[in-house]
Amino acid sequence: MPHDPNAETLNATGSDAQVAADPGATKGSDPDPEPDLASDPSSEASAETDAQAERDIWGPPPLLAGEDPEVYASFRLGILNSIKPRDFLEEVYAEDVVAESWQIRRLRKYQDALVKEKTRAKIATEFGWQPLLPESTRHIAELSRRWASGEPEAQRQVRAALEKALTSEAELVALTFRAEIYTVAKIDALLDAAGSRRDKFLREIDRRRPRFASELSRASEAAIDAAYEVVAPPTAMELPE
Residue 161 is part of which domain span? Predict the structure, then answer.
């Protein structure tokens, strides 16, 4: 059959004419491309709905004055992401362990802050500084505040003055412990109670899923032992009776 060059020209011209009539079309293109799900507003709305549902289930974070919501959120996610609960019941157990672990962390911080603050007050008001540091009472109070915040120069000055008085920071802290032993013991009792509640939840998990319980226990201890920001010590009204 003889070759007809005019037929090829006609076919090419017809195809080009279709593209010209529809600028959005290309040769060999898919007429129905898949939608871009990444920018789908409905997926974002679904994520927000899930987040709201989680807030409705667990309620607001159990925070006290001076505690940072972002620190708590990081603490909580650190435990949950380490465990990855498989169902709702495991989520309930994990949330209980998060709450008790946060309480343990809180009480440890309060106990540490209490002893530090009482020691600072002893440095500022009860120690016989005048023969050692002839500065004003106001200067001594400021020096004690800087010592408690960990400022190296203030700690050096206090340490040198204590050595002249034939005592030390350790002895001063020991005196604070002796004066506050009942309050420290009450905080220890609260720590034991929180630890017992956490261990009870872990035992329940252990009966349901042994590997999950051991992972949750390690995640809880790691979160509690993590570095934390210093908060103001509790007042007398905040301490347990």
Answer: 69-225
Assess if residue 163 is contained within a domain. Answer: yes
Tell me if 83 is assigned to some domain: yes
Looking at the whole model, is its pTM more than 0.70? Answer: no
Q: What angle do CA 159, 164, 170 make, to 5 degrees?
A: 45
6 in any annotated domain: no
Angle ∠(227,233,236) on CA atoms, nearest 5 = 150
Instruction: Give pLDDT tens digits for 202-240.
Output: 887 777 776 777 777 788 888 887 755 555 544 444 444
Q: How many domains does the chain have?
A: 1
In a domain, 140, yes or no: yes
